[in-house]
Amino acid sequence: MKKRQLGPCVTFFPQPATLVVTRDAAGQSNIMMASWTGIVSKTPPTLAVSLHHSRRTYANISETGLFSVNMVPSHLVVEADFCGLASGTNLDKATITGLNVKDTPNGVPCLTESPLSVECRFTREVALGEYRLTLAEILEINADEAAFDTHGSANVLAFDPLVYLGGLREYWSLGVKQADAYRAGLKLMP
Amino acid sequence: MKKRQLGPCVTFFPQPATLVVTRDAAGQSNIMMASWTGIVSKTPPTLAVSLHHSRRTYANISETGLFSVNMVPSHLVVEADFCGLASGTNLDKATITGLNVKDTPNGVPCLTESPLSVECRFTREVALGEYRLTLAEILEINADEAAFDTHGSANVLAFDPLVYLGGLREYWSLGVKQADAYRAGLKLMP
Questions:
Q1: How crowded is residue B94: how many other Cβ atoms within 10 Å of its Cβ?
Q2: Which residue of A25, B100, B112, B183 has the fewest CB atoms within a 10 Å radius of its CB?
Q3: What ipTM goes with this model?
Q4: Domains of chain A by range and CATH?
Q5: Hey, which residues 122-161 in chain B have their CB within 8 Å of chain A?
């Protein structure tokens, strides 16, 4: 396959389209779109999200130490994209989008409309140029009850997660299941 | 929406299904499946991948400092899953899967069959329990020439990226484009 060199850039996909929810010390919520986020350890469960140091979300986490990373269902693509375009310094994004923020028993503000919310407590950060790689202990994960069957199996399409294509700047939904992980590859095992 | 608490765990999706390609100091290649990876800075372009400290891939990066993170096209789901199941300590995964590893002019081993390869040079690591969050400078990104039209626009479906659903242990393809990022949300701007 012939390859085109894109240079050193940040074109990489698929990525999760998520909304990071925070509050400042006075309790005012903010909702920010983030795709530079993911799991980084199981011992203990740890999530990382990289934030520009000028973002309201970064300031809020510095103040309170608590935040959530929320899966975006496809039908909220417009609201989510708005939360990436607008600054929480000037606008109340929850009011404008109609999205709802509610605190969990752990005191973590989560997005009511998200089918998968990861509750996080800040542990440390790594400075990377203008960005801060923010590491956090996962306190709890809340999933939409309606996505589970009576055997406890979860239906992917009930979550309907939005996928972000970084570099191409497009949002897509999921299509067709290709295989079960940790099983499909067994047929090649010598 | 009623929520089910999953506890502190690592159920999080969508995630990228990628293959990390390395060589040991003697030149022997290894291919490992990884979904705990993503962009973490633009200044300069930086990628992070979290690796269990016992993995051959982690040892190889410690030896050479060079690796690539390669998008998996959907049709290689079986080969990719095998590269997550098998250990490079005992098996030559390239030979078994039929996948090909070739060094770029930067000396970075990349997967020939991948439509998007990110060439990386190790910069530093963060210990997180049994895992090492490995940070790397992005040296180059190589994309399948056939995915671009004459205007330079890239066709998502030509990449056909595989998406991993962590926690549910399923691989999916992309479905339908939902919106353009940085544009769809403008309609909510006051």
A1: 21
A2: A25
A3: 0.97
A4: 14-147+154-188 (2.30.110.10)
A5: 126, 128-131, 133, 135, 137-146, 148, 154, 156, 159, 161
